[in-house]
Amino acid sequence: MFQFKPNLLTLALLTAGVSVQGFAADAVETENQAQAEQSIEVIEVTGIRRSLQESQSLKMSSSSVVEAISAEDIGKLPDVSIAESLARLPGVAAQRLDGRANVISIRGLGPDFTTATLNGREQASVNDNRGVEFDQYPSELLNRVVVYKTPDASVMAQAIGGTVDMQTISPLIHGEQTVAVSLRGEMNDLGALNSDSTDKGYRSSISYIDQFADDTIGIALGYARMQSPNQEERWQAWGYPELDGNKVLGGAKPFVRSSELERDGVLAVLEYQPNDSFKSVVDVYYTKFKDEQRLRGIEIPGQWGNDWGNAGISALETQDGLVTKGVINDAAVIVRNDINVRDAESLSIGWNNKYIINDNWNVEADIALSKASRTDLGMESYAGTGRGNNNGATDTLGFEYDGKGGYDFTHNLDYSDPDLIKLGGAFSWGDPMGPSSQDGFINKPEIDDELKSLRLAAEYIFDDGAVRSIQFGVNRTDREKSKRDNGYYLTLKGYPDMLTVPDKYLLDPTSLDFFGMGDMLSYDSLAFYNDGNYIETNADSVDLGRATNSWDVSEEVTTAFVKVNLETELYDIPVTGNVGLQAVYTDQSSNGTVATIDSGTVVKTPITAGDTYTEWLPSINLGFEVAENQMIRVAAARTLTRARMDKMNANVNFSYEENPTQGNPNWTGGAGNPSLRPWLARQYDISYENYFSDQGYFALAVFYKDLENYVYDQKSDFNFGELFPEQPGNPVGRVTQPQNGQGGYVRGIEASLSLDFGLFADSLEGLGTILSGTYNDSEVKETPDSDPTTLPGLSEKTFNATVYYENAGFSARISSRYRSDFLGEVTEISLKRTNVNIKAETVVDAQIGYDFSESGIDALYGLSVLFQVNNLTNEPFTSYFGDDKREVRDFQNYGRNYMLGLNYKF
Fold first, then answer.
1. What element of type H or E holds 15?
2. How far does CA 233 lie from the centroid of its chain?
3. Lowest mean pLDDT among 90-99, 271-280, 406-415
4. Residue 113 DSSP SS3
5. DSSP label at residue 664
6. 830 confidence band (pLDDT: 50, 70, 90)
7. CA 592/CA 596 separation, integer angstroms
């Protein structure tokens, strides 16, 4: 009978050649035992089925509830990105950004509630918060990704949603010299939507693994490069105000986007094991990421532009409270040639040492550094027929709802005519140097994140008894993250004159036929800016929101833990698992700014604030082998997810009234909260798992997360007298800031099935399917009497289905993933983040391939070819306002991405 014992987790990991520090602390066994059992069947198949078998091996052997993705071969995870693969796991859903899976939700909890680690170590991030953007990590350099849905006391990077651990290969366990190369070309079927872009790109990688000095030294080196094109046709609406009792288009900013994503990744692993007692591993992972986007479109004021951007809207047809056809009279527009450039770097260095003192004692020391930095450039360049409101030629614009989420327009003017459309602010959006002097804007935010960690641990292994071992130790993490939100108004040097675009910057016109506006004037706005044609005015000096959006946040976290690993029998039922406790001490602080506007200028005062606290986190995980290869798991834990770092800032913006109206304070404003505590939850899990073959299982799980608190924006007292003691009046004012409020719950049920049809007939050998579905429900309230709040990232329903065939070298797979409507985080004006309603979507991918190793042709041994299509059904990304899904905010058409490539291993 198969025994679900912890030592099998080690064996599964070792045979897959992965790094086992961090989460595999309960899996310390002698190398002799591992080597003796390396004939486990998990490595007897290749390709898709090998990946599924290894993933199943880890799932059934883990003491926690986990899901896993394993590489089909060196440098070959099943999908083109980590997030795409993760989104196919039970209970996991991905949100797309610019057409690619970017961040994930686990069991209905969004990216804020998910932690990502590399080889068990928490990673710094390039965004404003803690969540890792998975497209930063080349899938070609990873060997396995594991999602931990229930924690134990040895997991330092806990999260209420779950923990995603990305794992690199162990060269000594791999055990042989291997060189693997891959090359793929890719193309987008929308074509190059902007003339200065391309619709073609490539991905390439090379990996080298070897062992030296009688297999006591192992190295793994890898390099991956990606130059990936991405195209998009986007309809974007301002909103939908009322016109004569019906909703109508308030304004729109449709555009086409052409992106080129460049990413370089480097991996190095050095492993030293001179004997069975000592092992030392150094791993380095570096990525450099650049995303350059060209966005060109026409911004059209609608009803909200009445009086300043047009003469109002005439409604021609109305359906169920929405104006579906109309005319914008005397319409002025603004022609936009924008560009976004993101440069990001991530570096992770770790050094892990393990020493087995004797049969009972082993110790471990792990030290790590993770750094991430990001610099954005988001530039807006304006052009139109005249400067400022109500100047220049106007148009009569007809519009009609297209039934999908956008509108089709008709027009009369030629918006590609450089003699008509000239550089300059067509609307009076800003006055940095005089009336209507905002001719563009440029955002240059910068993020720096550094995370250092030290972990010391020991384990005592008992010779017999129900307690197999006791682990204990301490982990120290120091993190510092900063943001500098730089922004500048742009004004032409020839202001107030409009400027005809010089010939040297002119490009072929860009087609906006996808919503009926024909061609538009196109020019190289970044080159025009770099040549010094604009005067810059720092927005920080006049914009209060900008002045209080830069911050420094630091955390010092010390975690002591103890975990008791169990292996016994209860009424003749084998039982394995663990019971543990963490004591987590946190010292957090922030440097920020207290700012107000005086005589039109921002006045700043520095401020530093913070807090300390301790949380106790017990956990229990038990597995009962109720029948052969059948397991019931129960788990309970108190978990925490740390608050968003961009909400932990000490910034305060305020206004002061010496003689306020009756009942109102002298001081009012908004603030961050450097004393913000983490989200806390008590979670309970029960699951049934039936492993009926090496490549087949059925699992059913029920979970409940009792959220002790949730973070809301609330009004609270703030003592301004400590900063401005000379001001008269009551020094205690009222500010709106994030606070820990009332909690709620998240609950759900998930089921998964992996089935190899070869079980039923030899003729079906190689044919199989993977199915999973999750239902989530939640209720979270700010106060006991308030209405429930929608949780960001929570889709009520998610479904995943994959059908594959692999036999005699040929392989084919088609996969579909569905998630219902959810609240997602997107970028708004000035590159700020906001939550919007996102419509349900079904994304389908497909691939076919052939491995010439099974062709019988010796000269082609090790060569394989692959053809992939992402977004096969061209599923759009749609977000909307309110409850009426016709009130679309964004409708994004990405097209299909085709990839053709080869892999060679020798």
1. helix 6-16
2. 22
3. 90-99
4. helix
5. -
6. low
7. 13
